[in-house]
Amino acid sequence: MDRTVDYVIIATYLVGVAVFGAIKGGKQKSSHDYFLGAKSVPWWAVCFSIVAAETSTLTFISIPGLAYLTNMNFLQVTFGYLLGRIVIAAYFLPAYYKGEMTTAYSFLENRFGAKTRKFSSIVFIFTRMAADGVRLFATAIPLKLMLDISYPVAIIIIAVIALIYTYMGGVKGVIWVDVIQMIIYLGGAAIALGFIIWDFLPDGINSVIAASQVDNKLQVINWGFNEGFKGFFTDPYTLLGGLIGGAFLSMASHGTDQLIVQRLLTIKSLKESKKAIVGSGVLVIIQFVIFLFVGLALYAYYGTGDLSTLGISKSDEIFPLFIIHKLPVGISGIIIAGLFAAALSTLAGSMSALASSTMLDLYKPFTGINDQVKELRISRYFTVFWAIMLVGSALFFMESPQTVVELALSIASFTYGGLLGTFILGLVNKRATQEDALAGFTGGIFIMITVISLQLVAWTWYTLVGVIATVMIGSFLSRLQKN
């Protein structure tokens, strides 16, 4: 099959977003402009950008595969995501908008001290580098297969595209490209869904519903009480696990992770920042409904849950299999461009967030630099540095993707609980000192390593366990010092 049209579409898209992001970002005069967009970005653009940043290639291909194998239970987690964002809007954002906050970790310095800010920033940097190195490698797979090039070359091509508009446009360029990215990847998923329903199924949407009802795939709510006490906590997709786990995970990823908080700080007012974070929660639910329904439609078309009969070994491969082998040339190019859109939005945001945290949390406090032109130049150097490091991380994971990918995707679970717990400790315990916070943070991470290693609970409970451990340790130590 001649894929020339697909190649032209993908190449045009990749070059187009790089140029668009560089232009839309405008000129920056300082690191404040470069990392905070001069606080001039509209809330709805940030709302779209948040959704695009949290949606990686792995999400784009794995959620349909999850629905193909199971059902719609994952939606329970997205309801928790919305609850978590409402808490962020109510309690976290007001704290961030007091004074001149430049990163998520500025709050920790104001509340506890410089050491806590630096420690949290370093934890974020290593977590983000590992997790997004995996995402970069995953994105390189279809490009490698389509162009018949090596993985290192594919990884470098994608990283360079993201670097161009991040370097030139700063966070403002990243956000505006994210708006386009979200439209493209969601549009691609919707187009694929339309083709499955209207071109491949005899009774259209009725075929999807009929096939799903037979195997109970339309089930959204899972109470989880029929599996006993242990089973309840080891099943990730129960209603309580989804709501509580999803809420705390969202509070950590969107309330304490610089990748998202950086975007929220580009909005001028607190009121509009709240609109952006809560609106993103609504959009995420809609997005996952589309992704999950793609999986149900694929199940209705292929008519089997046995992946081996389709010549694949993992459910993640079911959607790419359909895109490459069933969709017409041109349409498949648009959808693969959507796959790259999901990846570039996360990757570019990661470069900007890593650079901003390095510059504002570590380098600037250490050197005391106070020259706007020099700050901007060094900030761009840090962007290039982290682009190179992400490429290196992706190349590392390339050597043994099967086991290391799973490890890297769980890295956030090791640290999110401690990070969120430290923020909550600062908000609710006025007596806790910097030493209490650092001890609680470190203790929370070690407890999470134990819990995850022994597989004591499902992943939806990880962040909550880490938060409880961190807050309890920090609060206990604060009481000891006062007594």
Give the tags.
2 domains, mainly alpha, 483 residues, Sodium/glucose cotransporter, 20 helices
Describe, in plain words, how this protein is organized in 3D.
With 483 residues, the protein is an all-alpha fold. It folds into 2 domains: 4-400, Up-down Bundle (Sodium/glucose cotransporter), CATH 1.20.1730; 410-483, no CATH class. The chain has 20 helices and no strands. The chain has helices spanning 4-24, 31-36, 43-54, 57-69, 75-96, 106-111, 114-147, 151-200, 205-214, 228-234, 239-255, 258-264, 270-302, 318-326, 331-367, 372-398, 401-409, 411-428, 434-453, 462-482. The longest helix has 50 residues, at 151-200. The N and C termini lie far apart (76 Å).
Summarize the topology.
Elements: H1 4-24, H2 31-36, H3 43-54, H4 57-69, H5 75-96, H6 106-111, H7 114-147, H8 151-200, H9 205-214, H10 228-234, H11 239-255, H12 258-264, H13 270-302, H14 318-326, H15 331-367, H16 372-398, H17 401-409, H18 411-428, H19 434-453, H20 462-482
Helix pairs in contact: 1-8, 1-15, 3-8, 3-12, 3-13, 3-15, 4-13, 4-15, 5-11, 5-13, 7-8, 7-15, 7-16, 7-17, 7-18, 8-13, 8-15, 8-16, 9-13, 11-18, 11-20, 12-15, 15-16, 18-19, 18-20, 19-20
The CA-CA distance between the termini, in Å, is: 76 Å
Net shape? globular
Any idea what the radius of gyration is? 22 Å
The overall average pLDDT, rounded, is 85
**What would CATH call the homologous superfamily of the largest domain?**
Sodium/glucose cotransporter
